[in-house]
Amino acid sequence: MKNTMVTTALTLPGYEVVRNLGVVRGITVRSRSIVGNFFGGLQSLFGGNITIYTNLCEQARSETYQFMCEHAQELGANAIISMRYDATELMAGLTEVLCYGTAVVVEAKSAGA
């Protein structure tokens, strides 16, 4: 979302929330492939960061974040506050990733405020 401010905080310093547009979200459901599981299993034998799973998680989070920003843009928001991620394993190898927050319209605070 172009020109959108997103924060996990409840406020944006220097800005005032002038309109609350409600909850926005992005969701994706991901599965691990047989090949991914094989290579992830090999990496786990040696310990350390299991990059194939790290990349899968990062891709899912990035996608849900973009979906959330698009949802906010559709509502006319220029910021999202209280952004969070959540993940739930729906069944073995199948995970739902959710990114959500509150879509708001903010304006810069005046110098005297």
What would you note in describing this structure?
With 113 residues, the chain is α+β, with helices and mostly antiparallel strands. It has a domain of 72 residues: 2-Layer Sandwich (Translation Initiation Factor IF3), CATH 3.30.110.70. The chain has two helices and four strands. A four-stranded mixed sheet has the order 1-3-4-2. The radius of gyration is 18 Å and the shape is elongated. It starts with a strand and ends in a 5-residue tail after the last strand. The mean pLDDT is 84.
Strand order of the largest sheet: 1-3-4-2
Number of strands: 4
Helix content: 25-40%
Based on secondary structure, the structural category is alpha+beta
CATH fold type of the domain at 5-31 and 64-108: Translation Initiation Factor IF3
Write the layout of secondary structure elements.
Elements: E1 5-6, E2 15-31, H1 34-46, H2 51-75, E3 79-91, E4 94-108
Parallel strand pairs: 1-3
Antiparallel strand pairs: 2-4, 3-4
Please sum up the structure shown.
The protein is 34% helix and 42% strand. The chain is of the alpha+beta class and 113 residues long.
Structural key phrases:
single chain; 113 residues; alpha+beta; Translation Initiation Factor IF3; 4-stranded mixed sheet; 2 helices; elongated
